[in-house]
Amino acid sequence: MRRGAPLDVLIVGAGFAGLYMLHKARRRGLSALALEAAAGVGGTWYFNRYPGARVDIQSMEYSFGFDEALQQDWRWTERYAAQPELRAYAEHVADRFGLRDGIRLGTRVAGAAWEEARRRWTVRAEGGETWEARFLVMASGPLSSPNTPVFPGLEGFDGPVYHTARWPEEAVDFGGRRVGLIGTGSSGVQAITAIAPQCAELTVFQRTPAWAVPAHNGPLDPAFEARIKADYAGFRARNRQMQGGFGSELPPNPVSALEAGAAEREAKFEERWRTGGFSFLGAFRDILLDERANALAAEFVRGKIRSIVRDPETARRLQPRYAIGCKRLCVDTGYYATYNRPNVGLVDVAESPIERITGKGLVAGGREYAFDALVLATGFDAMTGTLTRLDLRGRGGRAMRDKWAAGPLNYLGLLIEGFPNLFNVAGPGSTSAFTNVMVAIEHHVDWIADCIAFLDRAGKRTIEATEAAEAAWVEHVLAVAKRTVYLTCNSWYLGANIPGKPRVFMPLFGFPAYAAKCAEVAARGYEGCALA
Ligand SMILES: Cc1cc2nc3c(=O)[nH]c(=O)nc-3n(C[C@H](O)[C@H](O)[C@H](O)COP(=O)(O)OP(=O)(O)OC[C@H]3O[C@@H](n4cnc5c(N)ncnc54)[C@H](O)[C@@H]3O)c2cc1C
Question: Does the Cβ of 64 fall within 6 Å of ligand 1?
Fold first, then answer.
């Protein structure tokens, strides 16, 4: 065990958030170190190597905007980059900004404790090594703790089991093999589409059908790239004015779906379907705000599913009944058509629940399905899981998992009462999950760096949310959600995918208003915070 020299900033994680935080802290003259459990940088794009893994926000948008030379020099090959290219981008960022010597790879943080007398965090790695820092930045990822549901018998399965979020480095050969795949969220939809042509037989076990719209992915159009790069800063600024921090090229239609005539509605849905991606949800201004408007969009997509999927029973099972966009919308590359392949089968485990995994496959609804390999696309303990799994102790030794037992109390998503000088990046209470996360990360890191500079200028040593500000903020996040369709389904936004997790709506909708609020708080000397 070694006690290193005290740092200004200790960062947990070296995904995009950790990389930018490290760069920013160093540029501000702060001493900083990032501890990363993985053997490489990139976070999400280091771990999620499953076939078909790629972004659902166009790469000209899902990338860093903080450095003009970086955004001019880097060239994406596709409209929606795939995982290997995103990982290479993270590696490039680490090299380009000389960050390697500030990152300790293969170092999992086990816990951290606030020492009141010294006004410092002591951070402990799994191996026992410790560091001290004035500030602790949790850049540990909103989706970085994989969820593996309890399936009786899983350990007795004879073949390999792969979780999409912990995919092996070496290529997995599904040739000639029968594959079972559980889960049809974003990762499942991508993996199903990519694995089906590689394997002998694919059986998909679906609990909730996915809403998916086409990506129309392809090589990046050089004319589009040149146009964006001619004014990249302007493009980023326009995107920051969008609710989700992206999509300024095709803003939401200001018309209500309820006011449009049937022919106009159909034409607009069709136009957005042909454009692809999240732009579909902007076909009318109220798709995410009004259940009746949402139902019209949903019925359009159900019609698409019926027209694409040839077997009527499979098409029936694939048609969701909850509001479109209520769970994260999937952006696909031939997902529904995959079910027309003769080697793909769909089992609805809402109708026929999974009873147990056997050596040769699994039993659902009293019937055994046989396969040679099992893929779990079962998602994450989202937004809170990574923090509550740590032994994170604030003032008076209070544990984060106790503080958050009934839901993630926080202020602006950034600060937590009782945990002085701890900043959380892209977590609950912020817009991260509803935003182009790169925009959310850059905004958070800039805000944190400015906050630390303010404290140092003002001769203050600690900052912490007040209980009152925290309570009001959590109420605000819920009040905003109540004006949308997001509370009408069971999603990971609500913690509904994890048994026993409190049902609290975690992300905030609407980036521009959120960014304005964060700026206002700072301008008012960190209103809602206790400074000492
Ligand atoms: C498959 C997939 C696709 C996605 N696609 C998109 C998309 O298209 N658009 C979008 O906006 N968002 C997308 N996201 C969300 C994505 O998580 C973010 O965009 C972004 O990558 C988050 O970056 P991050 O640095 O905050 O977290 P991460 O990339 O998750 O990095 C966190 C890092 O912290 C490390 N860490 C965690 N705990 C510890 C610990 N105790 N000790 C040490 N290290 C630790 C982890 O190992 C990880 O490397 C996607 C997520 C997934 C899973």
Answer: no
Q: At which residue do the structure tokens 């990363």 appear?
A: 36
Which SS3 state, helix, strand or coil, does residue 103 take?
strand
Write the Ramachandran bin of 520: left for phi over 0, alpha for psi from -120 to 50, otherwise beta.
Answer: alpha
Token pair 């589409």 is found at 193
Residue 72: exposed, middle, or buried by beta-carbon count in 10 A (0-12, 13-18, 19+)? exposed
User: Which residue's CA lies nearest to atom 5 of ligand 1?
Assistant: 55
Cα–Cα distance measured from residue 478 to residue 211, given in angstroms and rounded to the nearest whole number: 24
The kind and range of the H/E element at 422 are strand 422-424
Kindly report the length of the chain: 532
The rounded distance, in Å, linking the Cα atoms of 418 and 397 is: 9
How many whole angstroms from 15 Cα to the centroid of ligand 1? 6
Using a 6 Å cutoff on CB, does residue 37 contact ligand 1?
yes
- Show Cβ contacts of residue 127 under 8 Å, excluding neighbours closer than 6 positions: 107
Tens-digit pLDDT profile for residues 403-446 = 999 999 999 999 999 999 999 999 999 999 999 999 999 999 99
**At residue 4, does pLDDT exceed 80?**
no
- pLDDT for position 2: 46
Is residue 110 within 6 Å of ligand 1 at its C-beta?
no
pLDDT of residue 1: 42
* Six token digits for residue 344: 């793909």
229 CA distance to ligand 1 middle (Å): 26
**Neighbouring-strand partners of residue 327:** none
Phi and psi torsions of 55, nearest 5° = -70, 160
pLDDT at site 502: 87
In short, whether 13's Cβ falls inside 6 Å of ligand 1 is yes
Q: Where are the alpha helices (DSSP H) in 83-185?
A: 83-96
Judge contact between 162 and 50, C-beta under 8 A: yes
**Cα atoms found within 13 Å of the Cα of residue 4, Cβ hemisphere only:** 20
Chain segment 383-392, per-residue pLDDT in tens: 998 999 999 9
Hey, which residues does 464 pair with through a beta bridge? Answer: 530
Q: What's residue 3's pLDDT?
A: 53
Residue 333: both structure tokens together = 């590359």
Average pLDDT value over all residues in the chain: 96
Work out which ligand 1 atom sits closest to the CA atom of 143. 17
- CA 264 to ligand 1 centroid distance, Å: 40
Enter the DSSP assignment of 486. Answer: G
Q: Show Cβ contacts of residue 227 under 8 Å, excluding neighbours closer than 6 positions.
A: none
Q: Is the CB of 392 under 6 A from ligand 1?
A: no
